[in-house]
Amino acid sequence: xxxxxxxxxxxxxxxxxxxxxxxxxxxxxxxxxxxxxxxxxxxxxxxxxxxxxxxxxxxxxxxxxxxxxxxxxxxxxxxxxxxxxxxxxxxxxxxxxxxxxxxxxxxxxxxxxxxxxxxxxxxxxxxxxxxxxxxxxxxxxxxxxxxxxxxxxxxxxxxxxxxxxxxxxxxxxxxxxxxxxxxxxxxxxxxxxxxxxxxxxxxxxxxxxxxxxxxxxxxxxxxxxxxxxxxxxxxxxxxxxxxxxxxxxxxxxxxxxxxxxxxxxxxxxxxxxxxxxxxxxxxxxxxxxxxxxxxxxxxxxxxxxxxxxxxxxxxxxxxxxxxxxxxxxxxxxxxxxxxxxxx
Length: 343
Known about the structure:
By secondary structure, this protein is mainly beta. The chain has one helix at residues 3-20, and strands spanning 30-33, 39-41, 45-51, 60-65, 68-70, 73-75, 82-92, 95-106, 112-123, 130-136, 139-144, 151-155, 162-167, 174-180, 183-188, 193-198, 204-209, 219-221, 226-229, 234-238, 245-250, 261-267, 270-275, 280-285, 291-296, 313-319, 324-329, 334-342.
């Protein structure tokens, strides 16, 4: 090989090597907050500090919190809880640079404690591994789980009679359901798939894939928007036309995040949510994700038939006709109608 060709090959090799080892661009600026460890509560004031170690002449700085404009000093009032992003956009010379920092926003109040009174008890299929529960036109709709056992059904809640039933194929583990505009939306667990049915006929009309959420747990709606849980602290807001995850709530108390958000029900502007492996229900602010209350339903477990396979409380539905709440559990033989009150 000629010396010239060797030189060219070495030069190309160095070029490829250097391209593969390119260093990430370093920011000229940074921002920080007055919050200790970048954790703050609703009602507190955030002060932003802009760091410019190279003393670059700045034309303008604009701050945003999750894309919404804020000043260098702003109060935490109506913001969503959880981990949020503060961004500074800096204009200088003929350049523009963005730098960000994360802040965790907590609620500023303890959750209230609620009790309950049993109004009625009804029979419930002891074989049903209940995942989702919802009333529609006076009838109770239920989604159940376990591979090879998952189903969607409509029942007469007073007698337990099954009025309509469809089984999921064995590769699907059924999860929560909700009904909006006469469409049933049913989730599956790890299959990254949700199904849409006609509420009258149970005809499957379409399916959809999940977005940023990796699993399907619970789902409810407020009449216009779908709310989907995935087993973490996140509740995803889905557009019912596109079924895309447009944004999310993060469920937090005054101490930190609450994970395991499972079956959900929309009741009078709040999200009532079962928590996985817990015999209680969290009452969640649907605007910011704050846990405003907790209902301890653990006494109900003693009132159902104990048997092998009995699992925890799961399944919560609001009946607008009676204005009462209905709860059951996985493989429970009873459905409880309850009234809830603040202690």
